[in-house]
Design brief:
heterodimer; A: 478 residues; alpha+beta; Four Helix Bundle (Hemerythrin (Met), subunit A); Nonspecific Lipid-transfer Protein, Chain A; 3 domains; 4-stranded mixed β-sheet; 15 helices; elongated; B: 193 residues; mainly alpha; Rna Polymerase Sigma Factor, Chain: A; disordered N terminus
């Protein structure tokens, strides 16, 4: 069996649980006996069950139908349908009629029922059916089976169905080990992306995708493929996996620094061939493991512990090589990245892709808003934005603030302290007001739209507004 | 498609996790079987919203009764398919009966015929998706791409004998969709009732 036809299957069935699957290659010489619940008796009859009553083609070879005249529906494209005169078996001066043994005729029944044999063979089979009861019976049965084949309906599952079904289930029987609330966006987004991947065809895995983000004062990008994007998600989600004590998907490949970008480049470098759709399995398995593990690590409680002390305390952090995030924020970050890159993939293969559920979107926006003060401070240190010369504030004190108003579902309002990450946002000291649509803000924070082009309503201190929009774009990374 | 083999590890672990009340396990269960469940329900009921409803019922049932599944009886996939089939056929019969009672046209026999053909079609879908990939690939070439068995053999890189064998075996499996157990339970889903 060629790899190509098998791949999608091998993901679904990676643990080989389907007893009847696989191994047919071994039956190449025509004997499938003993294969996983499929058995063939000496006549080549096959049934799926051991008890015999399900056996197909029941009725022995020698047993003709009671009325002796099986009604066989005509083949879809047999000579009868052509309107041409049927070859006359008796008139032998032309090409001699094909003479085939019973065994061969019987083996042709499937192909005949599908109108997939030659005209000569069709004639030979049909002539045979007139006087062989068992073959006639099987032929009828197989012809009826052909009528059951229909093209797979390409029904995309409504992506919101998952949440509806799970919520309904959990309402009926509350879980003893819930998925923490802050892990729900990651759970939902990885499921959504996986559903998209399920639908895309083999060649689309190699469709070019440009990863885009923002560095310093401008956009940067890196070219890869759909499969390359999944490899990227796999390796960066791997930072969470490692923090949780799970296997590192990077394996032995060496990243210069444990940053998302270096890890991704290392993964891409380490494989001799570009990533293929086979990366989907490991990525999905890892995302499932992460959701499962955080349910246990946090013991289902989402409130952070007061003291440190490792697992179970809610103080687990994820190191991104250069900065770190609490586990709960890291999971939101990964959910956000998953959505953003799913959007990149959807664009590349021309599929529609919706934003996350409003309450998930809200959490992602909230994370970005909370990260803005640090991003502002970093840009300032790097000399990329105006220093707060006259505005130094003590940690914990109210400082000059920008009101970030996010419109649309999932939106809200945030007061961003401008002068120090330690300062507290203050309505009294509001110096500027920016209003953006939630999805537009996320595109900005993902580096998919530049600060100059982001559609934002602005009011107040222009420099503060510029700094905050650039700081938002600077949250993006590969 | 029950086998005598030990139930695969995934099925057993899944059942244990569901029993334990692990919400993450429910998510994984959905991710693995939702399209199977929804597809079968849709084939029986021919309606998106009704199929959504059956999908909810099936997962709720599994989540509320994780111990109803016995790994020794066969794969979880078959069990879930059987459950789906039963609930979907039940719903179809109920809606059709209600329509008949409201004075819709048709007879009780037509209703039974309709239920039966929907049921057979869903079973056929399941058989096709569950049959060994080589058989499915051969059927696909011969039926959907209209290749004759010699061309199919060449496409698949197998002998002509083998191509003929796969087509015949594939159709034989498919034809079992017509078989119904005494209770109306589809025997080839295996396991559950």
């Amino acid at each position: 069996m060629s790899e190509g036809t098998d791949r999608s299957e091998s993901f679904d069935d990676q643990d080989g649980r389907e007893g009847v699957h696989g191994d047919m290659d071994e039956g190449v010489d025509g004997n499938g006996a003993g294969h996983d619940g499929l058995r063939e008796d000496e006549d080549g009859h096959s049934g799926m069950h051991g008890d015999g009553h399900e056996d197909v083609g029941s009725g022995g070879d020698a047993e003709p139908r009671p009325d002796g005249s099986p009604r066989i529906p005509p083949p879809r494209a047999s000579v009868e349908d052509t309107g041409l005169p049927l070859p006359e078996p008796a008139a032998a001066p032309g090409p001699a009629p094909l003479v085939l043994e019973h065994r061969v005729l019987k083996s042709l029944l499937g192909a005949w029922a599908l109108a997939a044999c030659s005209a000569d063979e069709t004639t030979a089979v049909e002539e045979h059916l007139g006087h062989c009861g068992s073959c006639a019976e099987e032929a009828l049965r197989l012809r009826e089976a052909v009528g059951l084949l229909h093209p797979a309906e390409s029904l995309d599952l409504n992506p919101t169905l998952r949440t509806r079904v799970l919520t309904s289930c959990l309402g009926r029987r509350p879980p003893r080990i819930p998925v923490p609330e802050w892990a729900a966006p990651y759970d939902a987004e990885t499921a959504r992306l996986d559903a998209l991947l399920q639908d895309i065809g083999g060649s689309e895995w190699h469709a070019p995708v440009r990863l885009r983000w923002f560095e310093g004062d401008g956009p940067v990008s890196r070219r890869t493929t759909v499969a390359g994007v999944i490899a990227h998600l796999l390796t960066v989600d791997g930072l969470v996996a490692v923090a949780l004590g799970l296997d590192d998907p990077l394996g032995k490949a060496d990243a210069e620094r444990p940053t998302p970008q270096d890890r991704t480049e290392a993964y891409w470098r380490a494989s001799r061939v570009p990533p293929t759709r086979s990366v989907r399995g490991p990525w999905r398995e890892q995302s499932h493991s992460i959701v499962r593990t955080v349910s246990f690590v946090e013991g289902g409680t989402s409130h952070a512990g007061e003291t440190g002390g490792g697992k179970g305390s809610g103080r687990l952090t994820v190191a991104y090589g250069g900065f770190e995030l609490p586990l709960s924020d890291s999971m939101l970050d990964r959910a956000f990245e998953c959505w953003v890159h799913a959007g990149d993939i959807a664009d590349a293969v021309d599929y529609p892709y919706e934003p996350p559920a409003p309450r998930h979107l809200h959490r992602m926006i909230d994370l970005a808003a909370r990260m803005l003060p640090v991003s502002l401070a970093e840009r300032r240190r790097a000399g990329l934005s105006a220093p707060p010369v006259r505005h130094l504030v003590a940690a914990g004190a109210p400082g000059r603030s920008l009101r970030l108003e996010i419109e649309g579902s999932g939106g809200g309002e945030w007061l961003i302290p401008l002068d120090s990450p330690g300062a507290v946002g203050s309505a009294e000291r509001e110096v500027a007001h920016v209003a953006l649509d939630g999805v537009e803000f996320c595109r900005l924070a993902a580096g998919h739209v530049s600060p100059e082009e982001a559609a934002a309503g602005q009011d107040g201190d222009r420099e503060a507004i510029r700094d905050v929009l650039f700081a938002a774009a600077s949250l993006s990374r590969m | 498609m029950a086998t005598q083999d030990a139930p695969p590890r995934w099925d057993r672990k899944m059942q244990q996790r569901l029993s334990r009340g692990e919400a993450a396990a429910l998510g994984e269960l959905y991710d693995r079987f939702a399209s199977l469940v929804h597809g079968l329900a849709h084939r029986v009921l021919g309606d998106e919203r009704a199929a959504d409803g059956i999908t909810r019922e099936v997962f709720t049932h599994v989540w509320e009764n994780p111990d109803a599944y016995d790994p020794k009886q066969g794969p979880l996939r078959s069990w879930v398919a059987t459950l789906t089939h039963r609930l979907a056929v039940q719903r179809l019969r109920a809606t059709e009966t209600a329509a008949l009672a409201r004075g819709g046209d048709g007879t009780a026999e037509e209703l039974e015929r309709k239920v039966r053909s929907a049921s057979v079609a869903a079973r056929a879908d399941y058989i096709v998706t569950s049959m060994p990939t080589p058989l499915r690939a051969a059927l696909e070439l011969a039926y959907f791409q209209r290749r004759d068995y010699r061309q199919a053999a060449a496409d698949l890189g197998v002998t002509e004998d083998e191509a003929r064998r796969r087509l015949r075996l594939g159709l034989q499996l498919l034809s079992t969709a017509h078989d119904t157990g005494p209770t109306g339970a589809p025997p080839e889903y295996g396991g559950a009732r």
